[in-house]
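Hello,

I think I submitted the pyridoxal-5'-phosphate job twice by accident. Can you confirm which output corresponds to this input? Input:
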Amino acid sequence: MTLLDIFPSLRSGGMLPRLDPAVWPRETHYDPDGRITVGGVALADIADQYGTPTYVLDEGEVRERCRAYRRAFPDAEIIYAGKALLTRTVAEWIGDEGLSLDVCSAGELTTALSSWTDPRRIILHGNGKPFAELETAVNCGVGRIVIDSLTEIPLLAALATRPQQVLLRISPDIDVHGHPAVRTGVTDQKFGFPIGSDLVAEAVERIVRQFNLDLIGLHCHIGSQIYDPFHYGEAVRRMIGEMARIQAAFGITLGDLDLGGGHAVAYRSGDAEMNLAELADIIDDGLDAACARHGFPRPKIALEPGRAIVARAGVTLYHVLSIKHIEGRTFVTVDGGMSDNPRVALYGAHYEAVVANRHPTGPQMTATIAGRYCEAGDILATDIRLPADLRPGEVLAVPCTGAYHHSLASSYNGVGRPPIVAVNDGQSRELVRRETIADLLARDVG
Ligand SMILES: Cc1ncc(COP(=O)(O)O)c(C=O)c1O
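Support: Only one job matched these inputs. Its output is below.
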């Protein structure tokens, strides 16, 4: 029998709440005053210094996730999906760790190029690439461009002044049963060419006719928040089948297979996440079986994780603005909401939240955390256990907010976007400053 069995009140009383390493950066601790620290910096001090809301990003966690991918997939190319979060410094960290980078606009490309010297490690995506962006990409020498429509083929051929490597995006008809907005592997959606279709054959034929386009492989991206590695095994089998069909029809042997991203992370304790070792085994087994079956040589594999690299490195800080008890429900309103975290409204995502500025020891209450924006749906989290004596001015921290938060943020209601503050080894520094009212007005030309 343990002390907790004898004194169950210790669980919610005098003990520090558990900060699950599946959800928080691994360098998350409590300081002697009971305040939460990330990367050696107290979150309450960051809230004081930089204001709130603020995105905190743990550099060590981002780097460690890059290394975990490289350890699990030593023979594969790991391409970070910049759409999850891209700043010049994040691009630098990713580059230092030996990853390549996937961008999907001239904006992301320019951000990357301002800290990267080698555009050959950049790959351009997008189901709708404006002509000017294709031109920018070709002119600056991006390594690979993923073709997503027949229209792009003659445009690219007209632009390329040297051989341009391209991949063809295929939808492999794999349904991962996620939110409709992220089921990108099925054929009935806007991305890519349906597997086995005449459209694929037509696209290949048109590409190989262009002397300056070099078709090196196929690409697929089957969805988001996928925790069952089996789906990737299936993707490998189907994609190798498609590569073998292309070989039979056109006599070309494609050497690259890019399996996209979509690996799940835990947003709350107990959420399923992708196990990289299992994923590596399943991809390997799928390759062995499919290549043997079709008599096709093993291609070079690429993976494009975004969320799984940066999500857990991010923590968002808010100040509590007010606490209201309405019809038996407690609303804790904070100074951010749907514009810094649109994932709740977009995807029905669920988050945890804790008090960061002190070690709460007394009784708890169950609360709904409401955002400040003028939408009834602006709710950040529900059924959150918080100290019953919570007061306006205290700091709440929401973990696992490094991916698709800053990159999806808006300035709704005329509120500027939060800064990104990096932490590492006890130091903090601003990577992106807060968007001010002057910034917003600067765009309004009257
Ligand atoms: C083509 C492509 N690759 C990679 C990703 C990254 O996905 P995730 O961040 O879920 O790993 C996305 C996300 O939408 C994508 O569209």
